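Researcher: Next entry in the queue.
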Amino acid sequence: MRKIGFIVAFYFLFSWLFAQKPQVMSFDLTTHFEKNNNYTPTYQEIIDFYNTISQKSGFVQVTAFGNTDSGFPLHEIVLSKHGFDPKQIKSANLPVLLINNGIHPGEPCGIDASMIFTRNILQAGMLDSVLDKMVIVIIPVYNIGGCLNRSGTSRANQLGPESYGFRGNAKNYDLNRDFIKADASNTRSFYTVFKKWDPDIFVDTHTSNGADYQYTMTLIATQSDKAGPVGGKFLEEDILPFLYTKMNEKKYEMIPYVYPYKKGIPDYGIRSFLDYPRYSSGYASLHHTWSFMPEAHMLKPYRDRVYSTLAFLETVADFISKNPQKIKLVRSLWKKESRDKLSFPLDYTLDETKTDSLSFHGYEAAYKPSLISGKDRLYYDRNKPFTKNIPYYSNYIPSLTVTKPKAYIIPQGYKEIIERLEENAVVVTRMENNTVLKVEKYRITDYKTSKTPYEGRFPHSDVKTEIFTTEQAFFAGDFIVETDQENVRYIIETLEPQAPDSYFAWNFFDAILAQKEYFSAYVFEDLAVEILAKNPELKQKLEDKKSKEPAFADDAYAQLEFVYKNSPYYEPNHKVYPIARLNP
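Model: Structure for this entry, 584 residues:
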């Protein structure tokens, strides 16, 4: 009896231990795409797939979180052999790969590829080789509103699938322009998952537009000049050579995204895409995350587009699993490099003096009369493929640089700015007492504003400023953002008004551009005479301007306005950027 009791106890103990460790399971979960290579699943079919796979394997966790403009939550799919607690995974120093799909649901290659990728990891002998060294997080559909808005006609330039989603989200935003302004609920929810996992590598899956060529897959990578010496070197010398070599071995030869240098065709060369932070890739690089945007070619069969995207995901996972410690080390050095820097580029221009040579497999571009207009129209002759070397312009040089202050001080009225900073893991503190500080301030001297709406805004560009030093009163509750922190690049590129994707550029401070008090000419006339009498230097400037500018000399109101704007009566904060720079 004692022996039988021992056997029974051992059996139950073994069964309990077996149950605690998720096991690789054998199950048939053929995707909708695999059953019909010209079909991409609906939103509900996608979520049902992941829910089913999570029920069959303990290595997969599906979580609904946040909100989107469609009213549906985002879903987070986590593939892990190390538990599902981000803090535990960070303490284990495991790299995290974040895959985002369906930001443009009319480009669904990644949606289908990620479903196959997930299943294959659990079934095809990839479990240990992939998940032993990393954790994978997948957003199955980011633009849910666009995914629900299905048709087969919104992508006129695309070959299949038979039905797909729409580019705009439920509020008609292009979400791949929203990563700084964050007008969409989707974006604020994305901040949550990005902050939570702090991914080392980010993949955002797409389908291309533009020229015709022989490749099925092209790639937008983090612009290496924006990744700094440490992050950029690792990208150029380690990551990209691996990705291009392995994709070629998988029979999906890949080339940098075909972004023509001139005349809209690749024959004259291509240039690397300057990914501003409004885009997912540029946003990721602000957080020291290497970003990759695979662009499957729109005119290749949908089957090939999906499988080339799948090959890319497998290749990225392969690189991470082979280099987990180096990825973590280099990224930590990249973060330290940024934290220690004293000056930061805000914008870049293409360096046209430096070119590489690419062997390019294209189709001959030619022109023939249009049957619609009778004018010459471009076409690519697929009966005339070619391989030739073309220039590749991959270097950018800083065109605008700013020195790092010790801190920024943000008046407490700008809570929408603080919310976005904190959602992006920026440490913000509050002043405890009223105080007067010597600070630097910007006056906006010039800018251009979009004449038509762009993604719900009228953004500013070519912003010019003058900087001045002043003593200013600040109040208990005002916000302090110190720059000696990890996300310093995000801080600087959003709070410096000259930056292309600053909060100023995205209209968060437009109220400062409107003058609040004016003058009545008949009243100010006499006061202007007194002002000029007491200020001979100003009077001389007025006379000089009149002599040089006939239109000004003929405009009585303009002359009064000149005096007014150079007098104590002109409001001192007109066009003064409200965020102050505090230096040691």
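Model: Residues 228-249 form the longest helix (22 residues).
Researcher: Noted, moving on.
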